[in-house]
Every structure is written in C-alpha cells, then in structure tokens.
Amino acid sequence: MNKCKIIGGMLLAMGVVGSAAGAEAGDKRFYAGASIGEASADACDELKSLGATSCDDSDTGWKIFGGYQLTENFAAEGAWVDLGEVSATGPGGSAGIEIDGVMIDAKGILPINDQFGVFGKLGFIMWNADGTGGISGTDDDGTDLAYGLGAHYMFNEQLGIVGEWERFDLDGEDVDLLSAGAIIKF
Fold first, then answer.
1. Taking the model in full, what pTM does it have?
2. What is the pLDDT of residue 14?
3. Residue 72 covered by a domain
4. CA–CA distances in Å: residue 107 to residues 7, 42, 145
5. For residues 75 and 95, what is the distance between their CA atoms, to the nearest angstrom?
6. Residues of the chain with pLDDT under 50
7. Dist. CA 148–CA 35, nearest whole Å
8. Residue 129 to residue 135: CA distance in whole angstroms
9. Which residue in 20, 177, 31, 59 sits closest to 117, CA to CA?
10. Where residue 169 sits, what CATH number does that domain have?
11. Domain annotation covers residue 27
C-alpha cells in the first residue's frame, strides 16, 4: 500500500476527529513533532552464529509524529518512523536490512503538573524492510505490535520536549527506539 496514502488518511482522520470533538477556544489539542535517537535490534548473536564476521545492530533512528489529544489523559497519535539498518559482513560479502514504517497508537497520559507528564502508548506499526548489499532487491513487510513509555516537558503552552522508549515486535524480532525530540501544540 502506498505510504503517502496511509499518512494522508491518518491526517484526514485526525482532522475529522478534531472537528467533531469541538476544541474549546484556547485549547491546544493538535500536536506534531520530530524525534531522533538510537534504534537497536538484538540480531548480532544470531547473525554471528550463522557465519557473520562482523555485525552492527544499532543505528540512528528517527520519527515524525502528530496527534490529537482527545482529553487530558488520552490522545491518538500517528507517526512515520525510520528504524535504521542492521548490517553484517561475512565470508560472502556484506548485507543489511533497512526498516521503516507507519505507526498508529493510543496514548494514555498522566499529567504530573502543568508542564510535565508521563505517558504510555499501545498500537501497531505497518513496517517495510528492504535489503541492502548482498541482499539488495529483497524486501519484507508486515503489521505488528508497537508500545512504549515516555515523558514530555512543556516550556509554554505551545513548545516542549519529549523523550521516549518504544518497542516494535517485527515478526517476532524486537527492535527498540530510544529517542528525544521536540513537540509543538496548535
């Protein structure tokens, strides 16, 4: 399925939900942001047991996200996430897998005070994995569970920072993303 259509559909759905919910004057219910951090998969032990002489299962990961806060304690969120690449070298050459996807989450929020809050997320990721190097041209995709924990701190009513840990269960293989980023409410 075309990723642009999925993202467009998510944004349209969030806009329809936002219009139907009728935000009060001054409420900042829509939010958007971007985060960057480290994505890691626990793949090197298995790859080395299969003959890899070197392996790297950590890479820079990032995401662009947006959502709509329905209540003080609940939000719906969508994101585009890039989980980087797992690569290995063996006697036959080098190969890697690059992973990205679209996420949709339900987000439970516990405000600690007006600026600081913690949250938990549960949803799914529609992912795509593309081969590089010796396995270039191969690909795989799927839809699997995604969940995470995080915290945000708002400097004012509009601007803040967010940090979170997320886990993606991709066909039984766990990939973690530990990231920090910026958030804007509008």
1. 0.82
2. 47
3. yes
4. 18, 26, 14
5. 39
6. 1, 11-26
7. 14
8. 11
9. 31
10. 2.40.160.20
11. no
Q: How many structural domains does the chain have?
A: 1
The sign of the dihedral angle between the CA atoms of 182, 78, 112, 118 is negative
The amino acid sitting at 169 is D
Tokens read off for 155: 């400097």
Residue 102 lies in a domain: yes
Angle, alpha carbons 111-74-110 (nearest 5°): 20
Could you report the per-residue pLDDT of 23-59, keeping only the tens digit for each? 444 477 999 999 999 999 988 888 888 888 899 999 9
CA 53/CA 87 separation, integer angstroms? 11
- DSSP class of 23: P
Single-letter amino acid, residue 9: G
Domain contains 58:
yes
Enclosing domain of residue 59: 3-20+33-185
Considering only CA atoms, which of 29, 68, 40 is closest in space to residue 165?
40
